[in-house]
Design brief:
Layout: E1 18-19, E2 22-30, E3 34-40, E4 46-52, H1 54-57, H2 60-76, E5 84-88, E6 95-99, H3 106-113, H4 118-137, E7 140-141, E8 150-153, E9 156-159, E10 166-167, H5 188-192, H6 200-215, H7 225-234, H8 244-253, H9 264-270, E11 291-295, E12 307-312, E13 319-321, H10 326-341, H11 347-350, H12 355-358, E14 364-365, E15 369-370, E16 383-387, E17 396-399, E18 406-410, E19 414-418, E20 425-428, E21 441-443, E22 446-450, E23 455-459, E24 466-471, E25 478-482, E26 485-489, E27 495-499, E28 505-509, E29 518-523, E30 528-534, E31 540-547, E32 553-560, E33 562-568, E34 574-579, E35 584-592, E36 597-608, E37 611-615, E38 618-622, E39 627-632, E40 647-651, E41 653-659, E42 669-670, E43 675-679, E44 685-689, E45 694-698, E46 718-720, E47 723-727, E48 732-737
Parallel strand pairs: 36-40
Antiparallel strand pairs: 1-2, 2-3, 3-4, 4-6, 5-6, 7-10, 8-9, 11-12, 12-16, 13-25, 14-15, 16-48, 17-18, 18-19, 19-20, 21-22, 22-23, 23-24, 25-26, 26-27, 27-28, 29-30, 30-31, 31-32, 33-34, 34-35, 35-36, 37-38, 38-39, 39-41, 42-43, 43-44, 44-45, 46-47, 47-48
Helix pairs in contact: 4-6, 4-9, 6-8
Length: 744
C-alpha cells in the first residue's frame, strides 16, 4: 500500500520519530492495536514497523499478547510471511520491524478492482494454502486470517498480523467470555469452543477469504457481527459467485466440523496441474516426482528385508556422544556438514580402502548418469528406499565420494550400506537402538557408527560384520572425525586422538587456555582441526588450530565476540560466524593467522541460527525461518577501518537474498552445476541456483503417516557428483539428479 501522511487527524499524528534505532519515515496504516510505519535500516533495507498504541502499552495482558505475536511471527518467517527483522516488546511503546512488502492487501484489491479473475483466484488459493501449510508446520495457528491480513506481492500472497495467533502448545488462553477475531472469518469452534481451536480454524478462514476474493462479499454476510456469528455456527455458506471448479473445495473448507475440512496440503493437491493454472506461484518443480518402477529389495544381504526400495522419477553430521547444549550441537553439526559440501571435507580422505573400492564397475559416473559395462551412458535413474524407523526417526547418511557406497543410520533399522546406483540395501547391522543417530563415518577403511551406550562400533565396509567396539572415554564425552583421526574430548578437557582404522591412541593432551574445547571444523587440505571455547561473558572466543594427526598446535588466538568456525578460505584463512548476546548471527569474521588479522563483515540483517556453506569467498547462510542470504565475504574486507584487537570492520557484499518458505532447514551443501541443496522438516529436498538466488527444484514432501514430525536436527543432503541423496521423516532415503533439479 502507498504510504500515508503522518500528520493531520490521524489518531497517532504524534507518532514517535524512532522505534529502537529505526527512523520512522511515513505511516502505512493504522489498526485497532497499533500503527504501521515505513522505516529503513542502517543498510537502507525498507521495513514495516508496527508500533503499539500508547494506551495498550500500559496493559500487561496486551504486552503478553504482543510478545506472543513477535514470537509467532519469528517462528513462521518464510516465503509467505513478512520476515521479522527486529522487535522490542518491552519498550515503552512496544514495536516490531518486518521486511516491507510492497503491494495492496486483498481487501484493498477487491475494493478497488472488484473480484479476482478465475486464474488469479486459483493462484491466491494455492498461495494461501501453502502459506498455512508452512505456518502450521512451524506449530502456529494464525486465528485471524482475513482479506486485510493478506498482502498481494509480486512474489505471491503474504500472510501478516499474528497478533492473536498462538503456538499449538501455548498456555496463553482466550479469557472466558471474550471472543478475539473477525466474525465473518472465524470458524464455528472459535465461537463455541475457543479453547479447542486448532489448525482447521485457519482452513475455515481460508474458505471465507476465497469467497470474498471471488465475490466481493463473505460467505456469511450481515451488518451485525452477532448475526454473522449465528450464521457461521448454524447456516450454510453462500457460495454463489464462486467459480464452479473451486466451489466444492471452498465448501469443504467451510465445513462446520473441523475434521471434515481439508488440510492445506490437500487443498494444494487438488490444484496441481494440469487443472491448476497458477504456474507463477507454484513452479513446476514443486510437483511430485513420477514413480517409474517398483521393486522390493530381496534378501541378498543380511538386513535387506528392513527396507522397501522404489525406483522413482553431502554431508553428514560427524559428532557422537553426549551433547552439552542444543545450540552448540546444532552449530557443530552444521559445521561438520559443511566440510564435505564445499569440496574440502574429510570424506575424500576417508574413502580409501572402504566402500569406494568395493563398488562394481559401471556405477554412477560423475556428470554422465549410469554407465553400462560397454561404457554407454544411460539416463539418471532416481530411486527411493524406505528404512524401518522408530518414533518417526529420519535417517542420516554419508558417502565417501562419487560412486562410493552410501552408509546410513536410523533408530529402528540400525546402520546400513546402500548401493548409490539403485538404492538396494546391501547390509544392515540390526543394531536398531540408535536414538539421535549420527551419520556413519568411513575412517581408516572401516565404517564407524555410534550407539546410545557411548561406544563406537566398527564394521567391515563390504560385509557389514562387526570389527571392534571402542569406548569414547571413561566418562561419555564426544568424538569428532578429523580425516583418519577421531578426536575425543573428555569432561575434564583432555583431548584424545584415536586412529580410525585400529582404534588405538595416537596422542593425548590438554589444550592450553581451554577448559572444555569444542571441535567444530576440520580442513582436509591442511590437516588442521579447529577447537573453540567461548568466554563466560560471551565477549570473546579462544580459537585453537590443532594438527589432527600429531596433536601439534599450529596457532592459537583469542578473538572478539561469540564466534563459531564454518569454513576455511584462501591462504589458510578461517571463516567464522559472529553472534550477538541474543544469539542472533550478525556478521562473518575472516581471520588470517599469518597476518594475525581479523576482518569483521557485517550482515545486512540479523539471522536466527543460520547454517553456512561456502564456495571461495561466497557464503550462503540459511536461517531458521527459511531466509537464505548470499554474501561475498571478500567484498569490503578491510573497509571501515580497524577495531579493537586489530580487527578490521567492513560490510558484506550482498549477492542476493531469498525467502525459501522452509520453516526449518538442514545445513546447506553445495553441489555440481552451481546448485545449493538443503532439506526441509517434511522431507522435501530443495535446490537453489547460486548464480541468481532462485529455487529451481523441489521434491515432494515425505511425511510419516501423513503427519509432520520434527527431529532435533535435520540431516543435510549428501552430494556425490551429480547424485544428491536426501532423507525424510517417513524413513526414506532417496536419490535425485542434481544436474536436473527442475525435473524433481
Amino acid at each position: 500500500m502507498p504510504p500515508l501522511p503522518g500528520t493531520g487527524a490521524h489518531p497517532e499524528a504524534e507518532f514517535p520519530e524512532y522505534a529502537g534505532t529505526y527512523r520512522l519515515e511515513a505511516c502505512l496504516g493504522s489498526g485497532g492495536m497499533g500503527v504501521v510505519h515505513l522505516a529503513r535500516s542502517a543498510s537502507g533495507l525498507q521495513l514495516a514497523v508496527k508500533v503499539v498504541h500508547r494506551p495498550y502499552a500500559a496493559d500487561p495482558e496486551f504486552r503478553a499478547r504482543f510478545r506472543q505475536e513477535v514470537a509467532a511471527a519469528r517462528r513462521v518467517s518464510g516465503a509467505f510471511t513478512a520476515p521479522v527483522v527486529d522487535a522490542d516488546p518491552d519498550a515503552g511503546r512496544p514495536w516490531m520491524a518486518t521486511l516491507y512488502v510492497p503491494g495492496p492487501t486483498l481487501a484493498e484489491q477487491v475494493k478497488r478492482n472488484g473480484p479476482l479473475a478465475p486464474a488469479e483466484l486459483r493462484r491466491l488459493t494455492a498461495g494461501l494454502a501453502e502459506a498455512l501449510r508452512d505456518i502450521h508446520r512451524a506449530g502456529v495457528i494464525h486465528r485471524d486470517l482475513k482479506p486485510s491480513n493478506v498482502l498481494l506481492s509480486d512474489a505471491g500472497p503474504k500472510v501478516i498480523d499474528f497478533g492473536i495467533s498462538r503456538p499449538y502448545d501455548s498456555d496463553l488462553r482466550t479469557e472466558t467470555g471474550k471472543l478475539i477475531g473477525s466474525p465473518p472469518y472465524m470458524a464455528p469452534e472459535q465461537f463455541q469452543r475457543p479453547r479447542e481451536v486448532g489448525p482447521a480454524a485457519d482452513v475455515f478462514a481460508l474458505g471465507a477469504v476465497l469467497v470474498h476474493a471471488a465475490t466481493g462479499r463473505g460467505p456469511f454476510d450481515s451488518d451485525s457481527p452477532y448475526i454473522v456469528a449465528y450464521q457461521v455456527v448454524h447456516d450454510e455458506a453462500d457460495l454463489s459467485g464462486v467459480p464452479e471448479d473451486l466451489a466444492e473445495l471452498v465448501g469443504r473448507c467451510l465445513a462446520k466440523d473441523p475434521a471434515a475440512r481439508p488440510t492445506p496440503d490437500e487443498v494444494m493437491a487438488e490444484l496441481r496441474p494440469p487443472s491448476y493454472e497458477a504456474a507463477a506461484f507454484i513452479p513446476a518443480q514443486r510437483r511430485a516426482a513420477a514413480v517409474t518402477a517398483t521393486a522390493v529389495a530381496g534378501g541378498e544381504r543380511e538386513g535387506a528385508e528392513d527396507a522397501t526400495h522404489v525406483r522413482e522419477g553431502g554431508v553428514p553430521a560427524r559428532r557422537w556422544g553426549r551433547g552439552r547444549s542444543r545450540g552448540r550441537l546444532v552449530v557443530a553439526a552444521a559445521l561438520l556438514l559443511l566440510v564435505a559440501g564445499v569440496g574440502a571435507g574429510g570424506f575424500a580422505l576417508w574413502g580409501g580402502g572402504g566402500g569406494g573400492a568395493a563398488e562394481a564397475p559401471g556405477r554412477m559416473t560423475e556428470g554422465k548418469g549410469r554407465a553400462t559395462e560397454s561404457g554407454a551412458a544411460e539416463a539418471f535413474s532416481p530411486w527411493s528406499t524406505v528404512l524401518r524407523t522408530s518414533k518417526n526417526a529420519t535417517p542420516v547418511c554419508s558417502s565417501a565420494g562419487v560412486g562410493a557406497a552410501l552408509y546410513c543410520a536410523v533408530d529402528g533399522t540400525g546402520t546400513v550400506r546402500i548401493d548409490p546406483a539403485d538404492g538396494r540395501v546391501l547390509w544392515s547391522d540390526r543394531n536398531t537402538a540408535l536414538r539421535d543417530a549420527s551419520a556413519p563415518v568411513v575412517s581408516g577403511g572401516v565404517v564407524l557408527s555410534a550407539g546410545p551406550d557411548g561406544k563406537l562400533r566398527a564394521y567391515d565396509p563390504v560385509k557389514g560384520t562387526p570389527v571392534r567396539e571402542t569406548g569414547l572415554s571413561a566418562s561419555p564425552g564426544s568424538a569428532f572425525a578429523a580425516g583418519s583421526t577421531l578426536l575425543v574430548v573428555a569432561d575434564d578437557g583432555t583431548v584424545t586422538a584415536l586412529d580410525g582404522a585400529s582404534g588405538t591412541e595416537r596422542w593425548e593432551r590438554t589444550l592450553s587456555g581451554h577448559t572444555r574445547p569444542d571441535f567444530g571444523l576440520y580442513d582436509e587440505a591442511s590437516g588442521l582441526a579447529y577447537a573453540v571455547e567461548h568466554a563466560a561473558n560471551g565477549g570473546s572466543t579462544l580459537v585453537t588450530a590443532v594438527d589432527a594427526t600429531s596433536g601439534r598446535v599450529a596457532w592459537q588466538r583469542r578473538l572478539d565476540g561469540m564466534l563459531t568456525p564454518v569454513s576455511t578460505a584462501g591462504a589458510g584463512e578461517l571463516v567464522l560466524t559472529a553472534m550477538n548476546r541474543d544469539a542472533e548471527t550478525v556478521a562473518l569474521v575472516r581471520y588470517a593467522p599469518g597476518k594475525r588479522e581479523a576482518t569483521r563483515i557485517a550482515l545486512p540483517f540479523r539471522m536466527d541460527e543460520p547454517q553456512v556453506a561456502m564456495a571461495g569467498d561466497a557464503a550462503y547462510l540459511l536461517g531458521r525461518g527459511g531466509s537464505l542470504l548470499a554474501v561475498d565475504t571478500g567484498a569490503g574486507a578491510g573497509a571501515g577501518g580497524t577495531g579493537a584487537d586489530g580487527e578490521a570492520s567492513g560490510g558484506a557484499g550482498e549477492l542476493w537474498r531469498l525467502e525459501t518458505g522452509v520453516g526449518r532447514g538442514s545445513a546447506p551443501v553445495l553441489g555440481e552445476g552451481g546448485h545449493l541443496y538443503f532439506s526441509a522438516s517434511d522431507g522435501r529436498l530443495l535446490a537453489v541456483d547460486t548464480g541468481r538466488g532462485a529455487v529451481v527444484g523441489q521434491t515432494r514432501a515425505r511425511l510419516s503417516g501423513g503427519k509432520l514430525t520434527y527431529a532435533s536436527d535435520l540431516p543435510a543432503p549428501v552430494t556425490a557428483g551429480r547424485t544428491v541423496v536426501g532423507t525424510a521423516p517417513d524413513g526414506s532415503v532417496f536419490a535425485v539428479d542434481g544436474l536436473a533439479p527442475e525435473g524433481w
